[in-house]
Design a protein that fits this description.
By secondary structure, the chain is an alpha+beta fold. The protein contains 8 helices and 11 strands.
Length: 426
């Protein structure tokens, strides 16, 4: 058996990507929240300083009637919003809810209104900013940390994915290495007791049941075929001896002929079933077979199916014509196809020709429907068991033999390719 093809979307790679993607997302979110936390702490610090200074200024204004000089550097008091530096008053009109503004040349302002008055307490804090000069370093540190976390996540994800998918890979290799003649057994014991192990045990049980079923069917077909061959041979021999008697009644002679034909059909059917029941046909050697003697033997065997009908046989096969096919399979296929042509021809001509690497069997009558290839599907004029064409179809599939049916409704043409390009004859 060939190795199983590699899947286009490997589970191991998807697990690694999912694990590393989640780790990277967590690292990015963590970095974002760290930077946000630092900025919020810094803003709260300036807000607290402004609150303290605002209390001092309001107390001084209430007692003295004016504003005191702020104690902290960078702070100033403005009587109205219009007197705020760098046009902050106009920006307040546009965004009255804001209390933090960026100015020119890197200056940064925090505002606090001294209610109930119209005065404003302004703190220019560019010299007291802590996060701004450290921002590049913080982002760089967070970036390198994220890369480190990503690398660790990739390594951990690869290890985890390999550990998780290794049992599946082993199970896939076991199933890929299985063949109809050698079904794997005992492979579930080496797998862990998890979901994969449960799947393996279920699959192993199924394979055991399938193997037992196939063995029973094969043994039944083989035994039945062997058991039926002997009585059929006895019946056929008795029919031939009775037909050879000169004093036999003509009506009885005709009935014995029909009986002999039926026995012949049964023998061919049993031979085909026995061949299909054997697994050795998979290794049957392909030989270069001379066609004319084989076809002549098959015609002699199947002539009894014609009876006394006015049927002419046209045989156009060169003496050196050869086929590169398994000999046993070819004999069974020709017996069924030629016998089918004889049985369904009431009058006219049955022709067997070999041309351009194809063997063609042509007889008058309607073409073959696709249903005729199914087991136990009989034609209207058929006296058989509905297995012949199904057996032919299965044998051709097993041995990769090209088989074609002409859809012409005025005649039946069956073609078999004799020299497939991929075959090597012995």
């Amino acid at each position: 058996m060939s190795a199983a093809p590699r899947p286009r979307r490997r589970l191991r790679r998807r697990l690694m990507l999912a694990f590393s993607g989640f780790a990277l997302l967590v690292a990015v979110l963590y970095g974002f929240y760290v930077v946000l936390f630092v900025y919020l702490v810094e803003d709260e610090m300036f807000k607290g300083l402004l609150e303290q200074e605002a209390k001092v200024q309001l107390h001084h204004h209430a007692s003295e009637g004016g504003w005191a000089r702020p104690a902290l550097p960078g702070m100033s008091v403005h009587e109205t919003a219009a007197s705020l530096p760098e046009g902050l008053g106009a920006r307040l009109v546009e965004e009255p809810w804001r209390r933090e503004f960026a100015g020119d040349q890197g200056r940064h302002y925090h505002l606090r209104r001294l209610e109930p008055t119209d005065a404003w307490l302004v703190a220019e804090v560019s010299q007291q900013l802590v996060v701004r000069p450290m921002r590049g370093g913080i982002l760089q540190w967070l970036g390198w940390s994220s890369l480190g976390v990503l690398g660790i996540a990739l390594l951990l994800g690869a290890w985890l994915a390999r550990r998780m998918t290794a049992p599946l890979s082993r199970l896939s290799d076991v199933v890929a290495g299985a063949s109809p003649t050698h079904l794997p057994t005992g492979f579930a014991e080496s797998l862990p007791d998890d979901e994969v192990g449960a799947l393996a045990r279920t699959l192993q049980g199924l394979l055991v049941r399938i193997e037992a079923f196939v063995d029973r069917e094969r043994e039944f077909t083989r035994d039945a075929s062997h058991e039926l061959r002997t009585p059929l041979a006895v019946i056929r021999s008795a029919c031939e001896r009775m037909q050879a008697r000169a004093d036999l009644d003509p009506a009885l002679h005709l009935q014995l002929g029909h009986m002999n034909q039926s026995v012949l059909q049964l023998e061919h059917t049993i031979s085909a079933l026995l061949m299909l029941a054997r697994e050795q046909h998979l290794q049957e050697p392909v030989e270069s077979i001379t066609l004319l003697p084989l076809i002549e033997r098959v015609i002699v065997d199947q002539t009894g199916l014609l009876g006394d009908r006015p049927v002419h046989l046209a045989l156009d096969v060169a003496g050196d014509a050869k086929a590169c096919l398994p000999p046993t399979a070819l004999r069974v296929i020709l017996s069924n196809l030629i016998g089918n042509a004889f049985a369904h021809t009431l009058q006219g001509e049955v022709s067997i020709t070999v041309e351009a690497g194809w063997l063609q069997i042509t007889n008058p009558g309607a073409g073959i429907d696709a249903d005729a290839l199914q087991p136990f599907s009989k034609g209207v004029a058929s006296s058989g068991y509905g297995l012949g064409l199904s057996i032919v179809h299965r044998l051709c599939e097993r041995h990769q033999i090209d088989l074609r049916f002409n859809p012409d409704r005025t005649r039946t043409v069956v073609s078999i390719r004799l020299d497939p390009a991929a075959r090597t004859c012995t």
